[in-house]
Amino acid sequence: TAAKLAEMMVGREVQLTVSRSKSKVAKPLLEVAGLRVLNDAAKLVVSDVAFEVRSGEILAVAGVQGNGQTELVEALTGLREVDGGSITLEGTTLTNRSPREIASAGVAHIPEDRNRDGMVKGMTIAENYILNTYHLPQYSKRGLLDRKAISAATEKAVKDFDVRTPSIDTDIASLSGGNQQKVIVAREFSRNVRLVIAAQPTRGLDVGSIEYIHRRIVEQRDSGAAVLIVSTELDEVLALGDRVAVMYEGRIVGILDAKDATRERVGLLMGGIVA
Q1: Pairing verdict, β 92-93 and 82-89
Q2: Whole-model pTM above 0.85?
């Protein structure tokens, strides 16, 4: 069975379904209105997209790869310029802000490609852990890094997030994909997070790491953060989403509550068939 195969792969029983309580939805945190984004060829690939993500909920975005999801996430996280529309977090505009400004506003970003955007190979786990916080007073004083503080924080994160490594001074490139992703998740979730943006958070990971990453994302939701997940894995979307939005040719063609988000309905929307 699938469960038995998973257990044999990781050496223990694996939870293949995501265990989570009913969401406690509060006020909208992320509000996106009329968003327009161009790709590298100056073609409009995100067209008049509008949605909101509320505190205490996971909005999962489904769609076949190449329908504007990548550019949407890049726009939300400051990696791509917005051509039109607005992005606000609790009333504060994030439209065309820098990645540092967006991170400082309380946005955690698990990127689609961890090798390109999530870590720096050739640098240690500790150095990767502080990539977006090294400039803060807790880690640097008068332009000099506080190595002792960095080591202490990284050691705690490695323990808390179950990163399997001989040392925090190990090159992150030598870790397995699952442990690399755990370092990225530890870095992003060890801050005061109001919004989580996770793009393909479990791509290429073993079943044990997938289970772990899913559990950590649900913990963020339960702590009151707003969570936006973008995934091409329909099982992941249906397992995690309190609501499911579907992108097709750069537009949101439907947003469904979890109870209404069947494989059939979501699959039809992914193909552009709007009933």
Answers
A1: antiparallel
A2: yes
Measured CA to CA, the distance from residue 204 to residue 209 in angstroms comes to 10
Among candidate residues 72, 20, 74, the one with its CA nearest the CA of residue 214? 20
Tell whether the torsion through CA atoms of 167, 172, 177 and 182 is positive or negative.
positive
Per-residue pLDDT of 193-233, as tens digits, reads 999 999 999 998 888 888 899 999 999 999 999 999 999 98
91: which residues sit within 8 A by CB, 6+ positions away? none
Residue pair 154/183 in contact by the 8 Å Cβ criterion: no
Phi, psi of 21 (to 5 degrees): -85, 175
At 16, list the tokens.
């293949």
The tens digit of pLDDT for each residue in 83-107 reads 999 999 999 999 999 999 999 999 9
The tokens for 73 are 């996430």
The DSSP secondary structure of 75-119, one letter per residue, reads HHTTSS-EEEEEEEETTEE-TT--HHHHHHTTEEEE-S-IIIII-
- What stretches of the chain show up as alpha helix (H) in DSSP? 2-10, 69-76, 99-104, 125-129, 147-160, 177-189, 207-222, 234-240, 263-270
CA–CA gap between residue 237 and residue 100 (Å, rounded): 28
